[in-house]
Design goal:
Elements: E1 8-13, H1 17-25, E2 30-34, H2 44-57, E3 63-66, H3 72-83, E4 87-92, H4 98-105, E5 111-115, H5 118-122, H6 124-128, E6 137-138, H7 140-146, H8 154-173, E7 180-181, H9 190-202, E8 207-210, H10 216-223, H11 227-240, E9 247-249, E10 252-254, H12 256-268
Parallel strand pairs: 1-2, 1-8, 2-3, 3-4, 4-5, 5-6, 7-8
Antiparallel strand pairs: 9-10
Length: 271
């Protein structure tokens, strides 16, 4: 990936190792091999075995791994993750306590905590300051269930936006990169994916989780700055190099916050 920003995170079930290869060959910025929700309880050991064999035979295939929540299963998951350098990070579902994160941090890999409960939201400020955090994200479906929300209603959307607000503010307060948006469950409605992704951009998110390769293109479309925005940013920085202090561009005042915004846009495009 050439972009500074990691826009798309694609989940792949550990029980389907052939899909890992396909996902790594796709346009996804990150691939997450899932040992949790995508794997039935009776298939956990099989999933770990398949992932072990895949990682052993594909040392250059860098992935993240979503482990199980804190239980006997996660201990086995962490042993597997620690063994392979190609596991570049760990997604921790149902993150609620610093103790969970501290245990995962012992593996020595970056952690993406997934906030999926009221307890996780209440503890978010503390969790965000824990050692080893890469970025925050959340699971909207699990969160709606835990909070007793009615899916696909204005009320649920309002509450989830409050959760998004907390993720953005706590990420910034802890000096973390902006958070990652949750998945859209409908794998066929790419217009919905792009709408959700564009709104996430407006709310300060930097990327989005996905569950199907069809969702990658609309996510990238939303999170990649437009040519017009990049041209504006380039003009701002060109002028900033020649003057001291604030200046005007296209009838608008440009000062340090605007210059920083221009730098951020160019950084997102890898420029």
């Amino acid at each position: 990936m050439h972009l500074t920003q990691q826009r798309s995170f694609l989940f792949v079930p550990a029980t389907r190792p052939e899909r890992i290869t396909k996902a790594l060959a796709s346009e996804a910025d990150r691939v997450i091999v899932d040992l949790e929700d995508a794997v039935a309880p009776h298939d956990k050991d099989k999933a770990r075995s398949l992932l072990h064999d895949y990682l052993a035979s594909t040392p250059k295939g860098e992935v993240l791994v979503r482990v199980n929540s804190l239980s006997a299963e996660i201990e086995k998951d962490l042993v597997l993750c620690e063994e392979f350098p190609s596991v570049a990070g760990i997604m921790l579902p149902k993150a609620e306590t610093c103790r969970q994160i501290e245990r995962v941090a012992e593996v020595g890999k970056p952690i993406w905590p997934i906030i999926e409960s009221a307890r996780g939201l209440v503890a978010l400020e503390t969790l965000a300051s824990s050692r080893g955090i890469a970025q925050l994200t959340f699971g909207a479906l699990d969160l709606m269930t835990d909070l007793n929300l009615e899916p696909n209603t204005p009320g649920a959307a309002a509450i989830l936006d409050q959760c998004r607000y907390r993720l953005v503010v706590c990420s910034r307060s802890a000096l973390l990169p902006p958070p990652i948006e949750s998945v859209v469950a409908d794998i066929h409605d790419t217009e919905q994916v792009e709408r959700v992704a564009r709104r996430a951009v407006e709310m300060g998110f930097s990327g989005m989780l996905s569950i199907h390769p069809n969702q990658i293109a609309p996510i990238h479309q939303a999170f990649t700055p437009s040519d017009e925005a990049l041209a504006w940013a380039g003009r701002v920085l060109d002028i900033a190099e020649t003057v001291d202090g604030a200046f005007q561009l296209d009838g608008q005042m440009v000062d340090e916050p605007v210059i920083n915004r221009a730098k951020s846009l160019l950084a997102r495009a890898g420029r």
